[in-house]
Amino acid sequence: MDTSNSSSSSLYNIPHLAEDGGNWITYKERVFTAIGAHNLRRYVDGRATLPAPLALDPTSNLPVVPGPTGNVAATVADIEAQEDLIDEFYHKDSLVKQQLFSMISDHVLLQVQSLDNSSMIWKEICKIHEGKSDLVKIDIH
């Protein structure tokens, strides 16, 4: 599936995470598999980083790029290429956020929605449910 043109409500249809975390272990594996299938796992594990905007020349306040003898004025193509990288990061990060948000309860969503990126959201979801899965294991035994 091409993630750049995905119109479905989620990357893959994964069962919702139970409020009590009872399905945490299988949910977590399904999330990693679905997100990994779309080459987006680095957005969950924190390896994806937002590209920095171009530096600005201190005197002209115009964008610059490194040249052979120092910074040179950025071309329109340089600016567009950097903006495309930034847009691609936000697009892919939003795909992962959408996938995560579609599978959690409103209660958990309210706890994580203000976090900056999908990696931080995933870490918080893990923090909320890691301990719950241990309690479920004890209950099963």
UniProtKB/TrEMBL annotation:
Protein's UniProt name: Uncharacterized protein
Originating organism: Rhizopogon vesiculosus
The organism's taxonomic lineage, starting at the top: Eukaryota, Fungi, Dikarya, Basidiomycota, Agaricomycotina
